[in-house]
Design brief:
Belongs to the universal ribosomal protein uL23 family. It holds the Pfam family Ribosomal_L23. The chain is an alpha+beta fold and 98 residues long. The chain has one domain (5-64, 72-85): Alpha-Beta Plaits. Helices cover 23% and strands 36% of the residues. It has helices at residues 5-8, 16-22, 37-48, and strands spanning 9-12, 26-31, 52-60, 64-67, 70-73, 77-84. The protein has a four-stranded antiparallel sheet with strand order 1-2-6-3, with helices on both faces. A two-stranded antiparallel sheet has the order 4-5. A hairpin with a 2-residue loop joins strand 4 and strand 5. The longest helix has 12 residues, at 37-48.
C-alpha cells in the first residue's frame, strides 16, 4: 500500500496521559492501521520537521459497549507514541488542553 505522510498520521491524541508524556518529549498520534514504525517515523519527520528518536506502536482493541438493549463495540485503532530527540518540540501541541 502506497501511503503518503498525511495518510499515515490521522490525528493527535490529547488525553491526560498523553499530556503527561508531552512533558517527557513524547507525543501520541492515531495512525493508519497498516503503517509500520519506519513509515510513522518518516511521516512525523516530514510533517513536523523534527528528529524522531524512538517510535512505540500499539493496537487499541475494540471494547464492548451497550446503549439500552442494543449491543455494539467501539472501533479498534492503532496508536503511536513518538519520542523526539533532545531539544526538539512539536509546536502543534503547545497550549493543548483536555
Amino acid at each position: 500500500m502506497n501511503l503518503i505522510a498525511h495518510d499515515i498520521i490521522i490525528r493527535p491524541v490529547i488525553t491526560e496521559k498523553s499530556s503527561r508524556l508531552m512533558e517527557m518529549n513524547k507525543y501520541t498520534f492515531e495512525v493508519h492501521p497498516s503503517a509500520n514504525k519506519i513509515q510513522i517515523r518518516k511521516a512525523i519527520e516530514e510533517i513536523f520537521k523534527v528528529k524522531v528518536r524512538n517510535v512505540n506502536v500499539l493496537s487499541v482493541h475494540a471494547k464492548p459497549k451497550r446503549m439500552g438493549v442494543f449491543q455494539g463495540k467501539t472501533r479498534s485503532w492503532k496508536k503511536a507514541i513518538v519520542s523526539l530527540a533532545q531539544g526538539e518540540r512539536i509546536e502543534f501541541f503547545e497550549g493543548a488542553s483536555i
